[in-house]
C-alpha cells in the first residue's frame, strides 16, 4: 500500500511543483509588494480608495460587467432553448455555432469588431444608408464598443450553463402543469423559469466574473475613454512602474472575484453543467 | 412545453438564429479585410489583392512572430500534457476530500483573472531572468493550459473500468504494463484533446504574452496587438486570418477525435 501512495505522490508532484513555482509563489510575491509602500503597509489601498479617478474606474468596471452579464443572459436564452429542441444536423450546426467562437483568439475577435464598428466601417455605412442615423455613430473607443465586444466574447459562457439547466428539466413537469390547467405563461413563470434559474445565475455569475478581469477587449475597443480595472493595472506597470499600486489593484480584483465566487458557489454549475450534453 | 404554439417556436428560432449569426459572422470580417488592395482596411474592399499576404511573408518580423508563437506553444503543450496527464492519473487514485481540494488547486489558473496572473508571473520572471525567453512564456502558458488537460484526461479516465485493470493484474501484468496496454490506449483521445486545447490556448494567448514576450520574442498575438495600436493596415488582418485558419484546422481535428473517443467535452 505504501508503494501505491508513493506512486500517487510522484504522479501529482510535477503539476503541483509547476503550480507552486509558476503560480502560487509569483502571486504571493506580487501581493506582498502591495504592502511595501514607503508611506505604510496600507498606503497603496488608501491611494486606490481615495482617488476619484480610480474610484470611477472601479465603478465603470462594475457597471460594464453588470450590463454585459445581463445582456448575455437575455441573448443566451433563445439559443439555449433552441439547443434543447433541435436534433440531428441542426442541433450540431447550432452547437458548433456556440463552440466555434471559443476557438478563435479573443484578440482576433476584438480586431474584427474594430473593423466593423469603425467610424466609416460597414455597420455605420449600413445604418446611414438605411436612414436610421444621419451621421456615423461613435461605436468605437467608448463603453458601447466595449460592451458589444465583451458580449460577443462571453456569450458562450452564458449559453452553456443555461442549456445544461434546460436539458435537466423533466418534461413531465411541464406536461403536468399543462394538464392541471396552467396556461403557457403560468407554466413558464412557475415551473420552467425557476428550474432554469440555477443555470441562468451560473452563467450570469461566470460572465460577470470574467468581465471584471477583462483586458484585451476593453483596451482595444474602449481605449482611454472607457478604462477598466485591468487596464489600470497594466498602466500602473507599463506607464508608471508603480508595482505596489499594481499589486494592490490586482489583490482587490482577485479578492472581489473570489468573494463573489464563494457567494454563488452553490448555484454555479462549475465543472458539471458547463459542458453538459 | 411539448405543444408550444407555432408563433412561440418561430420567435425562438428566429431570435436564436440572429444570436448565432451575431456569434459567428463578425469573426469572419477579417478574412475579406485581409484581401484589401488599398493600404488601409475598408470593408468590403474596393479592390481585392493578395499583396498583404506577400507583405506578411516577406516581413521578417511577422515571420519571426509566427515562429516564436509555434515555439512557445510547443513548450507549453509538452509541459501541460506531461504534468496534467500525470496529475489526472494521480487524482484518479485519490478519494474524498483530498481529491476535491487538489482538483480545485489544479483548476485555480482558470479562476484567477488573467491580468493578475500575467502581472505576477511577469514580476517573478523579471527577477529570475526568464522574462523575454520562450521558456518563461511557455511555462506561463502551460499554467493556463493545465486545467484543460486535467479535465480532459480526467473525463477519459472515468471510462476506464477498474475491472479491466484487475483482470490485467490477475493475468500477471505489472503496473507499467497495465498502464501501457490498458489505461493509455483508453485515455489517449483525452490526452490528444488536452494537447490540442493546450496548443491553441498558448497560440491564442495575448495578455500574459504582452507582458512576458519582450522585444526579441514577440509572439504573433503580441505583434498583432502592437500593430493594431500603431497602424491599421491589412497585414494585421492577414495575421488574424492565419490564426483563424489554424484554429479551424485544430477544431476540426479535435472534433474528429471526439467522434472516435465519444466522451470528449470539447
Percent helix of chain A: over 70%
Helix coverage percent of residues of chain B?
over 70%
User: Which pair of chains forms the biggest interface, and how many residues does each contribute?
Assistant: A-B, 81 and 87 residues
Q: What is the CATH C level class of chain A, in words?
A: Mainly Alpha
CATH second-level architecture of chain B: Orthogonal Bundle
Number of helices of chain B: 12
Range of strand content of chain A: under 5%
Tell me the quaternary state: heterodimer
Distance between the termini of chain B: 29 Å
* Main beta sheet strand tally, sense and closure of chain A: none
Tell me, what is the CATH class of chain B? Mainly Alpha
| Estimated radius of gyration of chain B | 23 Å
CATH architecture level-2 label of chain A: Orthogonal Bundle
CATH homologous superfamily identity of chain A? MetI-like
- Number of DSSP-assigned strands of chain B: 0
Structural class of chain B: mainly alpha
Protein name (chain B): ABC transporter permease
Outline the secondary-structure elements:
The complex is a heterodimer of chains A (277) and B (266).
Chain A: H1 2-33, H2 43-50, H3 52-85, H4 88-103, H5 106-117, H6 122-130, H7 143-168, H8 171-179, H9 184-212, H10 216-221, H11 229-238, H12 243-263
Chain B: H1 6-24, H2 30-34, H3 51-58, H4 60-93, H5 96-111, H6 114-128, H7 134-158, H8 162-170, H9 175-204, H10 207-212, H11 220-230, H12 234-261
Organism (chain B): Taklimakanibacter albus
Protein name (chain B): ABC transporter permease
Give a short overview.
By secondary structure, chain A is mainly alpha-helical.
Structural account:
The complex is a heterodimer of chains A (277) and B (266). Chain A is mostly helical and 277 residues long. Chain A has a single domain, classed as Orthogonal Bundle (MetI-like fold). Chain A contains twelve helices and no strands. Chain A has helices at residues 2-33, 43-50, 52-85, 88-103, 106-117, 122-130, 143-168, 171-179, 184-212, 216-221, 229-238, 243-263. In chain A, helix 4 (88-103) packs across helix 7 and helix 11 (229-238) runs antiparallel to helix 12 (243-263). In chain A, 45% of the residues are buried. Residues 271-277 of chain A have low confidence and may be disordered. Chain B has 266 residues and is mainly alpha-helical. Chain B has one domain (51-261): Orthogonal Bundle (MetI-like fold), CATH 1.10.3720.10. Chain B is built from twelve helices and no strands. The two termini of chain B are 29 Å apart. Classes of the chains: A mainly alpha (277), B mainly alpha (266). Chains A and B meet through helix 1, helix 3, helix 4, helix 5 and helix 7 of A and helix 1, helix 4, helix 5, helix 6 and helix 7 of B. Chain B: This is ABC transporter permease. Chain B: It comes from Taklimakanibacter albus.
